[in-house]
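User: Could you check the structure of this?
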Amino acid sequence: MKVIIPLAGFGTRLRPHTYTKPKPLINVAGKAVLGHILDKFVGMDVEEFIIVHGYLGEQIQVYMATHYPQYHACFVEQRELIGQADAILRCRPFVHGPVLIVFVDTLFEADLSGLAHEPADAVIYVKEVTDPSRFGVAAIGPDGWVTRFVEKPKTLDNRLAVIGMYYLKDAPALMRACQELMDKKIQTNDEYFLADALNLMIQDGKKFRTQTVDIWEDCGKPETVLHTNRYLLEHGHDNSAEHSGNGYLVVPPVHIAPTAVIQHSVIGPYATISDGCHITGSIIRDSIIDEDAHIQDATLDQSLVGKGSVVKSNYRKLNVGDSSSVDFS
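Assistant: Sure, the predicted structure tokens are below.
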């Protein structure tokens, strides 16, 4: 099996952080988002990772070579961002059998071990949501097979949101559908969506089923990145036990890089502190502080601080009488 990871987008919802760093390299719980995804395939028989990159793609190549040299990877550039189906189609020369597609926003918990013996033509990973209007959804027929995919539905009839992970047994058939989509200029909101190509495959008689996942964490915008950070710190990425008795207070769960320098501060809960950070006299919780940032005399909550940033604050002087109320929010 080969794995396609499309990640060519600009990450506009995570700016300013994605002006200088591609979204997949945003640090969450001590590791790049891309690293968390790649870790899911440790021990699996993956023949090759096909990375579809765009803006700042050279950083992705360096990251893969540095942190995952054991994986065989090839890199495909998508210069014009005209849709998911176009990104997938660019992988056509490299796929000839089964393929798993994982979009880089998708952090998941799912059992992939049985895919080699999958009887269906495709498995679409989904999670039920209360508001499907922000997602693509899968409609299921009475026989249990997927009848069609709908992008951002306007009703609540179908609430199985597609999480951005797809297994297809016949990659050439997928590529033919993507090519047909583009030849016929079948677009949704001026883009070539993968969902529309999958609909063509269903019309051609392919049998798709859904597989529900228990955990689906999104890394597409600041609030969801922080939510994902909290989840990961609670599930295996807390290293607070390594940082006791160091002259600062740790409130778990946290992830603090070994080269971070922290003095007279309170870190946590739910804080990720990256390599090279210098933090003095500060309180940091529910935040991600990227490499080489300097934080002094600051109180941070629900914050993303970029690489090499400097944040300085100061203490307030108060003379507050009885029965007073002071609110700095």
